[in-house]
Amino acid sequence: MDIVKYRKLHRIRPECLIITATLWPEFKDGWSLSHPHHFPRPLQIYEDGSLEDFAEDRIGIEYRVELEPPLDTTPAQSSVDMSTLPCVLTLSLPTGKPFQAERLQVLLEAESKLTPLARTHEPCVIVGTVEPVVEYGHRFTRFIPVAVLTDGLIPLWVHPAAFAFGLLDCEWPARQQHRHLGEMEDPEFWGTVIPADFEDPSTGLPAWYARHRMASPAEKDPFEQHGAFLNAYAVALHQAEAVDSRAAGFYRASQEFHAALRKIFGCAGDMGRGHPRAA
């Protein structure tokens, strides 16, 4: 099966690229970056000069990536030329509020799947999102994995939030134990209109989106579901007089969903330690 057919069969979103790659271990000051480690936490300074005390930590693992043909060509590829820049595979997660110990276990399990590939340099196929980055004076590409597959397109590891965010649709690897980002909660205790920073700890989704997803039949088309969830929350926001119109509610719902997506499947603003030529 080729990449184009695989994308269509497993409903891989256009935001995701599919690359064939070889992974290599990375080290910094003698420390293996493939082992979970904290990312430096950016400081947020308020207008009065005070610092944010409750900024969320991120932990992650990193590998150097050597791309191999074929490269996927999708709309997401057009903004980033991965063929000319060094590439680093980075899987990082916010630790949660309160701290979600399950997220460290997710990283440890991913390490157990990816490090053997990096040691043997066995080609693999990675589905993921892309961020162009400038760190330590170097431009490079950071690739955030949604799923890692063998060269024969058999899933080795799937991100626990991949299905919840609708990024792809495939079977869980049989031996993957950690399939959630944190403790699952009962959505019955969540209010109708939920603060934007309140997430479902098991998926990283906005809590209101997770509630609609849990109540929706699984067999429905994911693209139709997504629009329906945004519209339902827009109506709830308007009825609660949190916004002036349903259109404003839909915009707010869409913004909150994409902010959650960037938080779980992105690293913008968080400096890692995996640049191939980092000092």
Keywords:
alpha+beta, 5-stranded mixed barrel, globular, 23% strand
| Class computed from helices, strands and strand pairing | alpha+beta
Q: What is the average per-residue confidence, as pLDDT, rounded to a whole number?
A: 85
Distance between the termini: 41 Å
* Total domain modules: 1
Number of strands: 9
Major pleated sheet? 5 strands, mixed, barrel
**What's the helical proportion of residues?**
25-40%
The proportion of strand residues reads: 15-25%
Global outline: globular
Please state how the strands of the largest beta sheet are arranged side by side: 1-5-6-8-7
User: SSE string, helix = H, strand = E?
Assistant: HEEEEEEHEEEHHH
What does this structure look like?
By secondary structure, this protein is an alpha+beta fold. It has one domain (1-279). Helices cover 26% and strands 23% of the residues. It contains five helices and nine strands, in the order H-E-E-E-E-E-E-H-E-E-E-H-H-H. A five-stranded mixed beta barrel has the order 1-5-6-8-7. A two-stranded antiparallel sheet has the order 2-3. It is globular and about 55 Å long. It starts with a helix and ends in a 15-residue tail after the last helix.
Topology:
Layout (H helix, E strand, L loop, with lengths): L2 H7 L7 E8 L2 E2 L2 E2 L4 E2 L19 E14 L15 E8 L6 H20 L3 E12 L2 E13 L4 E4 L48 H9 L6 H18 L6 H19 L15
Parallel strand pairs: 6-8
Antiparallel strand pairs: 1-5, 1-7, 2-3, 4-5, 5-6, 7-8, 8-9
